[in-house]
Design brief:
Layout lengths: L2 H10 L6 H8 L3 H10 L7 H13 L6 H12 L5 H10 L38 E11 L2 E10 L5 E7 L4 H15 L7 E5 L8 H10 L1 E5 L9 H15 L7 H17 L10 H7 L1
Parallel strand pairs: 1-4, 4-5
Antiparallel strand pairs: 1-2, 2-3
Helix pairs in contact: 1-2, 1-3, 5-6, 7-8
């Protein structure tokens, strides 16, 4: 079937189904469709804006809500429109992101060391590498489970370091800390606090020894209280909703590639509503 025929079918049913869905179904571009409509002498209202939003959603893995998209349009395209207009367009053309899911707190294994809750939900840091939070999450694939250990800096919410593995071990956590210290060793604050939950990896003797070796001060959530480590939970919630839940990987390799791609996007491109910039932009400009 020729593209022009497909465009005609889409145009005929435009009031019944979203144009974006029909374009995907017929494997034609939306820009091509809008060009076809304009040649009919019937200009599409906001066609250029729709296409910019659509392109950015593809680039950001379809994760932007209307507020973040409004910020991106203003900052990067010089387009100043009412946020409600952006919301209307994104709703009409099925360009909104998905709703996040929540992650349940879970404890495993035997505890050896416990630490005071020094962070105490003070989730703001005055300088980089002074307050870190860490946790482990998992990604289900057809080959099995991939575990993701990460460290997040509360100064700018960037991911400092991460490691993946097919087993949830103490070494996975230790390797994440080693990588973070290697990458940031010249920039570490005099007093670095590392906050975790009460998972067995963080209460282990090996974790105690490594944090002592690096001069890191451990902090730990109270038992059964995920809100004490909300900033680590928050990142995993974002990542799962914006990446894993919507594009479930089949293999370990595919899961690792998705994680690498998403964390790079998160650190360098994904706009934070609070600052209007990606996490590492704040650090580079400070």
């Amino acid at each position: 079937m020729k593209p022009s025929v497909k465009y005609a079918v889409i145009y005929r049913h435009r009031t019944e189904y979203p144009v974006i869905v029909m374009c995907d179904f017929f494997a034609v571009s939306r820009s091509g469709y809008y060009s076809f409509v304009s040649r009919l002498g019937r200009p599409v209202k906001d066609a250029e804006l729709i296409e910019k939003i659509s392109q950015q959603q593809r680039k950001c893995f379809e994760t932007y809500g209307y507020r973040r998209m409004w910020q991106w349009l203003k900052n990067n395209e010089g387009i100043y429109r009412n946020p409600k207009t952006i919301l209307r367009i994104m709703k009409k053309y099925d360009l909104l992101s998905k709703i996040r899911r929540h992650r349940k707190w879970q404890q495993m294994g035997r505890q050896v060391h416990k630490y005071a809750n020094l962070l105490n939900r003070q989730f703001h840091a005055q300088r980089p590498n002074s307050k870190w939070v860490t946790d482990i999450s998992y990604i289900q694939t057809k080959q099995g489970v991939v575990y993701l250990s990460m460290i997040r800096d509360l100064y700018d919410n960037s991911i400092v370091a991460y490691k993946t593995g097919t087993r949830q071990t103490v070494n996975l956590v230790l390797d994440t800390i080693r990588l973070a210290m290697k990458q940031e060793k010249k920039k570490i604050a005099a007093e670095l606090q590392l906050h975790s939950d009460q998972g067995f990896q963080y209460t282990s003797q090996a974790y105690f020894n490594l944090t002592k070796q690096y001069g890191i001060t451990p902090s730990m959530s109270r038992r059964g209280n995920p809100y004490d480590n909300a900033m680590a939970e928050n990142f995993f919630s974002i990542r799962k909703t914006e990446c894993i839940y919507r594009h479930k990987p089949a293999t370990f390799s595919e899961a690792n590639e998705m994680i690498d791609r998403y964390i790079h996007f998160y650190n360098h491109e994904r706009i934070q509503l609070k600052t209007g910039e990606p996490p590492l932009t704040q650090r580079l400009s400070s």
